[in-house]
Amino acid sequence: MDRFTALTMGFLSVVLVNNFVFTKFLGTCPYLGVSGRLDRAFGMGLAVTFVTALSGTLTWLVDAYVLMPLHMEITRYICYIVIIAGAVQLVEMYVRKFFPSLYDAFGIFLPLISTNCVILGICLFLDVWGTNNLLEAVVVSTGTGIGFTVAICMMAAIREELILADVPRALQGAPITLITAGLLTLAFMGFAGMIK
Amino acid sequence: MSASNGSIPSPYPAALFSGLWKENPTFRLLIGLCPPLAVTSAVKPALTMGLSVIFVLVCSNLVVSLMRNLLRPHLRIIMFTVTIATFVTICDLFLKAYTPQMSEVLGAYVPLIIVNCLIIFRAEARASRSGPLISILDGVGMGAGFTIALCILAGVREIVATGRWFDIQVMPKGFVPWLALQMPVGAFITLGLILGLINVMTARKEA
Hints:
The complex is a heterodimer. Chain A is built from 9 helices and no strands.
């Protein structure tokens, strides 16, 4: 398999087959919290994609060129979290300057991106999967963000329709959202085994 | 003076017990949902995860509470996460050293405690505003509530999916295990149904 095919496979794998939301339950907080409206979900997805791409790449570089040679793996989590918080701060400043209305719509959720599990998740899984070159790290971390965007947008679109549905009283709100999420997961299980 | 003091309820028991049910992080507040969904396919990993979260939550609450006067608004979250990351590193190394098998099962979900919203939420809402003792009690209560929720969820999923609980056979011989509950689907749907059940129960209580 040549390099290009390998990268495409890796990308498709994190977007569809190993989607972080559906198979690893990462990022379930914004997935259930911000997915009320499609436009907001899309904006959130893009912000998360940008931060995952940036911090996935940066943490891989720091891990490979600073922590490993110096044998400081023990401080790995602390370094990761500082890098992520920095990247989020960058996005926050950018959004506040150029998209003030989006900034107001996000409210507390924007600074909380730094505590979004997807982002720390991809930094950790890059290590678990043994990613050993920079290009692969960039492609996989971007793909993870896109996978999150796909998931949260699908959920938002369903929930916009769900408002009109006649849901039993006991299941209204969070329970039906979780059950919907379960059914979506079931659908995405169909992709399992597509790429090995 | 002392008599009127007695009628004001002490904040300490409230701090300890509110996390168990009234503000149960998983069932009531719906925060920190990643571990309840990810590690509850069996009771043992769920319990390990719960105990790890109690440890991290209590320690980080204590430290945040002690440094609450040094916090600056825009640097708050990073101070919290660095504190939490330190304790999670300790916890991770401890699990790796003493229960390597469990550490293998939990995998990346132990370091992911760092970004568990529950811990940051408690640091923000309680520890950065109150004294050390109350923060510790709050950590214990919230952690215990979280652990109980995890164990309930894991119990249901393990019994239905394998017919066993804590590795002990509990279901009769003819029971057909429903493996779907051990997959990611089962996690979402079980939690959804339990929340629905709680809604029914609270609605009946109020009626």
